[in-house]
Every structure is written in structure tokens, then in C-alpha cells.
Amino acid sequence: MKLALTFDDGPSPWTAAVLDLLREYEARATFFLIGARVRERPDDVRRIAAEGHEVGNHTLTHPRLTEIGDEEARAEILGGVEALEEVLGERPQLFRAPGFHADERVLAIVSELGLEPVFADVDPQDWQPGKDSHTIFRLVPGGTTATRRRRPAPATTARRRSRRSTTSSPASARRATSW
Fold this sequence. Notes:
CATH topology: TIM Barrel
Number of helices: 7
Distance between the termini: 18 Å
Structural class: alpha/beta
Oligomer: single chain
CATH architecture: Alpha-Beta Barrel
Largest sheet: 5 strands, parallel
Strand content: 15-25%
Shape: globular
CATH class: Alpha Beta
CATH superfamily: Glycoside hydrolase/deacetylase
């Protein structure tokens, strides 16, 4: 079974530790990054890409896109694209809306900008107290889990369960689980 690992809301102080674990266990993931943080931590972003992980846009400042107007939503999405282009020299292809909040209006803007939206089979709600990586990992029946700020479950757990990590690219699978 393949499991698409995705990490949202970075880069953050946890990024290096997450990358170290992914490298140790030869795992790949997709990182949905916030543009403002991309500009604050460009070395982390370059390391993510250099180590073979996918990078996707997660807006410029992480607003709830369904609660703002079209032009502000477009500016947020484009701001994230531009920050990633500045640091990596290439345009991201993937987009994940903060909190998975994307209605038809937002998805139309995403499509107009040439980005592919990525959702998740499981929302781990890892921002809630008491949610650790082991609890979250048990939520994954074989789909995709999204995570935000917490460390991933140890890859040894994934190996015991015969799960292989992959990225969110179309070649891998479009639906991903976030941690």
C-alpha cells in the first residue's frame, strides 16, 4: 500500500527534524508551504526540494479563503506562488487551501492560476490538544493524511504496517493524507 505523506503550514522549526527522519527512512513527502514563511526560511525550502520532496503552495499568509473576496483570495494564492518561485526558481504546480477550506469559487481561482488542488482522505486535526503522531497514524486506513506542525509517526511504524510513502504528484496519487 502507498501512503502519500503531506506536511502543511511550513517551513517551521520542525522542518529540519522532519527532513532528517524522511531521509533516514528513505521516504518522500509533499510540503505545502506558506509564502511568508518561505521568505523567512528559504534554506529549509531549498533543502526540501534538494532532497527530492515535492513543494506545493499553501497561500501567502494562511487565511480561510472561503471567507475573503475573490481578489484577496487570488492575491493570497499568487503571493504563495511568487514566494516559492523566488526561492526555488520554479513555479509550484500543487495547491492546498488552508484548513482544506476551498469552495467552487476558490477552486475556480486555483484552476485559473494553473494550479492543481490537493485535498486529503484524512484530516488529522493535529492542532487539537492530545493529538500525537501515533494517534493520527491510526486514522489512516490507506489514504492520505495531512499534518501541520507535529513530527511524523516514526517510519518504522509505517514499515511494520507495510506502507510506503510517496508524494502527492499525479504520478503518485492526487489524494494525500496530511500530518
